[in-house]
Records
---
Amino acid sequence: MTSLKTQIENFEFHPEVYVYPTPRTYTSKLTKAEFTKDLNVYIHIPFCKQACTYCGYLKIVNSDLQETYLDALLKEIKTNHSILKNNIKTLHFGGGTPSLLSTKNLKQIIDTISNINPNILNTADEMSIEATPESINYKKFSEFKKLGINRVSMGLQTLVDSEIKLCKRNNFSKQSIEAINILRKVGIPNLVLDLMIGIEGQTVESFKHSITSLIKHRPETVELYAVGLMPNTRIKTHNLMTKKEIYECYDIGRKLFLDAGYHQDCHNRYVIPNKGSFFQEDYLFQGLSLIGFGAGARTYAKNIHYRNNYSNKAHKKAILEYIDDINNNKSPIKSAIILTENEKMRQYIIYNIESLDKKEFRRKFNISFQEQFPQLHQDLTNLNLIQEDWRRISLTTKGLNFRDLICKHLFSENVRKLEEEYRPK
Ligand SMILES: C[S@@+](CC[C@H](N)C(=O)[O-])C[C@H]1O[C@@H](n2cnc3c(N)ncnc32)[C@H](O)[C@@H]1O
Ligand code: SF4
């Protein structure tokens, strides 16, 4: 593997490492999963009204499968009733575009969970839904709020109309700002706005414009996503910014957000202190299990990670197979990876990479980070990517920029091999 030093000198880019092991490595069969008592719940809604050029997430556009999918989803939730009796700390609807659900359908899902676990509204710190600006209207989101939704994560991607057009999206800046104003009127306490870095036609200057326009609306949380080139998308790569410019955008974003009073919550998230957050990710990184429902949904238990019917090429087929499996009382779980003690240690570092508690690490794994990874520790120090005191190893500002590249150096041999062998299907 190329050294970190060379990778950084060449401004190599690695897409966000959200979970470890990465889903491309799920090649095992399922064994019994063990969940933590406090639990995150994820629901995948794979329907959209548009196919954005860069997006490889599991979804279908303008489909008539919604009702049958919903029936299957409710059945899958009921089948997992014993796990859902744990303390549900977060519920997140992701997609696709879950904000396209009608209030009736969203209520059906939440009711199904709360019939199993009537305490959910007391234990959940966060009930969150992803949305596109065009799907926001006052009546629907007032009802969503009454159902317990307290966080809306809305994908703007850019506030430059020519870029929206190139992405084949419909949220021109006027619609985006209207949607923000509606969500403010509804009184959603945690408004999250997503912006992307490196979409077609975007320049460093136009990215800066999107950020300064967005900051005026004071969203509690902002997520910045550098575009990952996913299989089977329609993104045209000839007019994308360079990797070096992507890193420049990270620095520009950080400066603008910090100057505006935001706090950098993690490598790609800025929050208004004590207001913004993404608890589902925080709790996952703190070691809470996550159970996912729906096509392509992943579950992260203590001893195993697994995924329901999925394809990154044939999205509709995967969704139909998921529905079929559920209707035929078959398990929709198709692939998994068992976590060895070594993988658990690597996962712990990756999830805590921004600030690793040295004492806690030694307590858990009976070794220090430096003893376990002497060469990497030295490289991180020499390259000024970490700072260290007696308690913690923390990423520096430079380290935060290169967080995903650093994570890649923590992947085990086995995970690297499985990643290399992976072919989209
Ligand atoms: C699954 S989308 C859901 C939001 C909603 N469907 C929308 O598009 O507005 C969640 C976020 O993932 C990000 N995303 C989508 N495709 C991406 C890609 N190829 N690389 C990086 N981030 C991506 C976008 O910022 C998007 O807002
Ligand atoms: S970015 Fe959002 S709206 Fe666009 S295709 Fe992906 S999930 Fe659907």
Note: The radius of gyration is 21 Å.
---
Amino acid sequence: MRANSHRWIDSLPQTLGFSHVTLDRLAEKRNDAVFLEDARHEPMSRTFVLAGDVPVVRRGDLPLDPLFKFADVPFATEIGEPIFLGLDDGHPRFVVTLPESVLPLIAEQQDIKAIDLRSIAVQGLVTTPHMNMLATAKALAAWHAKHRFCANCGAPTHPTSAGWKRHCDQCGTEHFPRTDPVVIMMAIKDDKCLMGRSPRFPPGMYSCLAGFMEPGESIEDAVRREIFEETGIACAEVAYHFAQPWPFPMSLMIGCIARATSEEITLDGAELDDACWVTRDELRQMLAGTHPGGMQAPTRMSIANHLMREFLEMP
Ligand SMILES: [Zn+2]
């Protein structure tokens, strides 16, 4: 963007999923065994429960309650060391991960159920702070599940620092949880923005383009490269708008808007079914669900939806 068209973002959009943080992570306490033991036994201490990477929640009215006392964790015969997430409103919050094999048992229960986090987010089934904590929990659980062996020497590793590291006793390497940066962006030109359709999308849905950042790239470079690779559109300036933790399995979506300098689309058929320029009027119709051609915007919890709204607000 040119400097005079930049809009300062003073707070995240309320409906942006996974992004609303109330947790004090208290990272300095992660190696304090006495603190962690006391925190676990504090009367208001609660834990989130994952079965594999699927959150377990209590059945009931919305918002659903995803918190359990340690004594009430279902099918808890195999709880390892819980992950310490931090303090929420002064009260300790943990995560325990049960094996995926308990999912059929949970499905038979009257008072609890397991629901995948994407459905929880799209349907707004828990509070926004709990959404963020579950995103953190799921991303950490996914990292632990995939990093059981040392990438340096191949020996088994074990969790330390209340679940925020893994250590290899064989070679001494410490392994830290990963976050994989993904750029998600909208190219704009005059009154139009560039929308794409992945083969994975539901019928009619169009969204922003997205792709993983590569080593050696700035955010701006990755945005320009991805847009060019997928559509052949060249871009000049790139402006960062906001980001969203995306725990599928452990990404950070970095939302940007880029100024396109060309218009002719050359589709990369491997990544996209279709790409097209959409006017602001059409974009409004997509967001309102009234587009005459049946084009649909992604759900309100997604960063793409909010980038589309940003474009409508821009001068
Ligand atoms: Zn090692």
Note: The chain has a mean pLDDT of 93.
---
Amino acid sequence: MRVLITGGAGFIGSHLADLLLEKGYQVRALDSLDPQVHGDSPSRPDYLDPSVQLMVGDVRNRSDVAGALEGCDILVHFAAAVGVGQSMYRMEHYTSVNALGASVVLEEAVRRRDSIRKMLVASSMSIYGEGLYRCCECGDFAPRLRPSEQLERHEWEVRCPVCGKASTPLPVPETKSLFPASIYAINKRSHEEMFLVTGQAYGIPAVAMRFFNVYGTRQALSNPYTGVGAIFASRLLNGNPPIIFEDGLQSRDFVHVRDLCRACAMALENPAADGRVLNVGTGRPTSILDMAKAIARHLGRPDDDFMIRDQFRAGDVRHCFADCSSISELLGFRPEIEFDRGVGDLCRWVATSTATDRVDAATRELEERGLTR
Ligand SMILES: NC(=O)c1ccc[n+]([C@@H]2O[C@H](COP(=O)([O-])OP(=O)(O)OC[C@H]3O[C@@H](n4cnc5c(N)ncnc54)[C@H](O)[C@@H]3O)[C@@H](O)[C@H]2O)c1
Ligand SMILES: [Zn+2]
């Protein structure tokens, strides 16, 4: 069985490649080695298993995609321009790589529909927008982004739209309404819809996995646009305090990349996943501040020297963590890597890598465009 992973030289793709090789699959990767991810003179990453057949090419290029799909039984589409903030000023680039890229990949997959047994696409928690909340008086609600007047007053928590009282965040199920709040998130919603609709129309089993915040080794350390864990670690190693927006108590669901890849392999191998969208997270909220502290501790740095900006970024949500009951009931998936162990693993790796800290420049890009206040 041969699997094509687009974006297979990247963070998640390379880990999935390792797992699938272990399971006896042949793995091919189609990857453009984007300099923002792979550095200014990109080459095959050292971490990529030598048995992975890497084809350097662009998902928007039909002959690159056709060549890569030749002889493949399974298609995993991970190639993407990844970065919420950046997508708000490089709209054309994001939409080109993400929407056009997926269209070319799907057209070529459809041409080989007799041999392709399954397609899996990476979606993202960002498509939810704000998470789900409960008001003890008025019940559950799925709000839009917090109003900017509220954020200008530095009131960060989500309030009940009816009575105005403070609310409690709840885990987000796949059925929550989608309010994507960035071009990237809109692109990811398109990714899942494009794959599921095409799969349905042509009878190719397809599944969309809504990844929450993935962390682990190999996350691009010099890419200031993705991966809060890698960004904090890279700041600390360069002697700079991590930059934290709002008050740091906003929460996310950090899922370790190896757990996430196990979930993807389960979805590839189990027809129960066909036609579904599935959250992949841990179900556990962790604040951004706790992530920063855990990283600082593992890197042997003080765990209170952070730059808490008391500022907000356009489009940021307060709390979002996964309700994982679908994937657990359907596929029997349960995360195994405990947060502290996962962060330790990430930090040991970061300590042996070189990270260029480009966070200040990236933050300036947002400031200049009025995307942070
Ligand atoms: N990391 C996360 O927390 C997270 C969360 C939700 C969803 N996702 C999704 O998971 C997938 C993988 O993300 P990742 O974190 O491994 O990112 P990554 O940047 O490490 O990997 C993406 C890979 O795609 C390649 N690529 C970019 N443009 C390309 C193009 N035009 N043609 C071919 N290859 C191209 C890059 O070179 C890179 O190797 C993406 O689709 C992303 O949207 C990631
Ligand atoms: Zn209320």
Note: The radius of gyration is 20 Å.
